[in-house]
Amino acid sequence: MSTPLPEQLHLGCGGFAPAGWLNSDGSWHVWLARWPRLRRLAIACALLPRFHADHPWPESIHHLDLRRRLPFADQQFRAIYASHVLEHLDRAAALALLRECARCCRPGGVVRMAVPNLAVQIQDYLQGHILPQAPGHSAADTLLHRLHFRPPLTQSGRFQSLRRLYHHLYDFNSHKWGYDRTSLLALFQEAGLANANACQVLESAIADIHTIERAERIGDGATLIIEAIKGER
Question: For residue 187, what is the domain's CATH number?
Answer without folding.
Answer: 3.40.50.150
